[in-house]
């Protein structure tokens, strides 16, 4: 059965759940210039607190940055450059397609809890966070904004999401194209999905390849994905398109299905490796936080090169 309404607020927002992620952080080696003052290291050089380099003085430079000790020793004028601290834009794309609302508990619950946990982390360290749910198309649920006091607003908006109507499928190509058209400042994009698309994993990889941000993929899985407990003569129905098919479940059929699923997982992992994207397989039948914590084994998830390919 597909849920017919949104996830209850008290099922999604759990104070103990959020407290358990309070010690986790997202850290960027460098963030793109042009943001607000926050906790991340920027490519900009200015009046921060951490010294980075010297450069020769040029007409019009701020004399307050001159290193007068060097001038007295060498008779040459150099500026001391300090690293600016700015925010890391965090863009969260949870999959809310109709199939995500199937079964009990639906995997959308783990997806939204993951989204809320990462939102809490981002807002807690003064980063800007935006949420863009997608199915056959992408929507802007919360435009990028910062401030730890906004967490409840994000939670309420996530709790307002409802299953799409019957016939609404998953369209990565259309959704990612729409996200790209927003032309947001470069940062970290986290896609939270099972990555199933009727067009195939090749279409998913092709769409994600065009993302010009750093990528983190959170793959929502459950044991029945790899090994469905089916037998006999069945009529299977696609919960998104409504299309049906009569299938006789034999050992040979299950073996072919398993081989197909393994090719899917291998293709997704290969894409992540070639793209330099992080990937986490998150079991939706298990608690979310301990699994998310594997991304933060040293206390922080490090984003190496926000911006992706140019």
Can you walk through the features of this model?
By secondary structure, the protein is of the alpha/beta class. It folds into two domains: about 10-30 and about 85-305, Rossmann fold (3-Layer(aba) Sandwich), CATH 3.40.50; about 35-85, no CATH class. It contains ten helices and 13 strands. It has helices at about 10, 15-20, 70-75, 105-125, 150-160, 170-180, 200-210, 225, 250-275, 290, and strands at about 25-30, 35-45, 50-55, 80-85, 90-95, 130, 140-145, 190-195, 215-220, 230-235, 245-250, 280-285, 300-305. The strands form four sheets. A six-stranded mixed β-sheet has the order 7-6-5-8-9-12, with helices on both faces. Helix 7 (about 200-210) links the parallel strand 8 and strand 9 (about 215-220). Helix 4 runs antiparallel to helix 5 (about 150-160) and helix 6 (about 170-180) packs parallel to helix 7 (about 200-210). The chain starts with 8 loop residues before the first helix and ends in a 7-residue tail after the last strand.
List keywords for this structure.
310 residues; alpha/beta; three-stranded antiparallel sheet
Number of helices: 10
Total number of beta strands: 13
Helix amount, in percent? 25-40%
- Could you tell me the radius of gyration in angstroms? 23 Å
Overall residue-averaged pLDDT value: 82
Q: Rough shape?
A: elongated
Domain module tally:
2
The top level CATH class name of the largest domain: Alpha Beta
Order of helices and strands, N to C?
A: HHEEEHEEHEEHHEHEHEEHEHE
Oligomer: single chain
CATH architecture of the largest domain: 3-Layer(aba) Sandwich
How is the largest sheet built, in terms of strand order?
7-6-5-8-9-12
The biggest sheet, with number of strands, parallel, antiparallel or mixed sense and barrel status, is: 6 strands, mixed
> CATH superfamily assignment of the largest domain?
von Willebrand factor, type A domain
What CATH calls the topology of the largest domain is Rossmann fold
Q: Give the DSSP E fraction (strand runs of 2 or more residues).
A: 25-35%
Structural class: alpha/beta
Q: Note poorly predicted spans.
A: 28-49, 306-310
């Amino acid at each position: 059965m597909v849920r017919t309404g949104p996830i209850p607020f008290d099922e999604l927002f759990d104070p103990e759940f959020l407290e358990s992620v309070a010690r986790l952080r997202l850290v960027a080696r460098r963030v793109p210039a042009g943001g607000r003052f926050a906790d991340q290291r920027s490519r900009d050089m200015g009046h921060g607190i951490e010294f980075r380099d010297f450069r020769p003085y040029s007409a019009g430079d701020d004399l307050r940055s001159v290193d007068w000790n060097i001038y007295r020793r060498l008779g040459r004028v150099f500026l001391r450059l300090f690293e600016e601290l700015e925010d890391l834009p965090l863009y969260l794309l949870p999959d809310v397609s109709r199939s995500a609302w199937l079964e009990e508990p639906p995997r959308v619950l783990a997806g939204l809890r993951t989204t809320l946990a990462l939102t809490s982390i981002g807002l807690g360290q003064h980063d800007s966070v935006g949420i863009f749910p997608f199915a056959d198309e992408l929507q802007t649920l919360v435009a990028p904004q910062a401030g730890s006091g906004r967490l409840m607003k994000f939670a309420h908006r996530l709790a307002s999401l409802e299953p799409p109507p019957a016939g609404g499928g998953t369209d990565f190509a259309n959704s990612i194209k729409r996200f790209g058209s927003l032309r947001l400042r470069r940062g970290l994009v986290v896609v939270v999905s099972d990555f199933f698309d009727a067009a195939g994993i090749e279409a998913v990889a092709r769409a994600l390849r065009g993302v010009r941000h750093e990528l983190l993929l959170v793959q929502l899985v459950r044991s029945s994905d790899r090994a469905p407990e089916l037998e006999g003569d069945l009529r299977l129905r696609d919960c998104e398109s409504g299309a049906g098919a009569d299938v006789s479940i034999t050992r040979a059929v299950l073996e072919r299905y398993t081989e197909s699923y393994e090719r899917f997982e291998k293709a997704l992992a290969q894409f992540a490796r070639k793209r330099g994207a992080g990937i986490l397989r998150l079991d939706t039948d298990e608690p979310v936080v301990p699994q998310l914590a594997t991304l933060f084994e040293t206390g922080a998830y490090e984003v190496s090169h926000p911006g992706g390919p140019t």
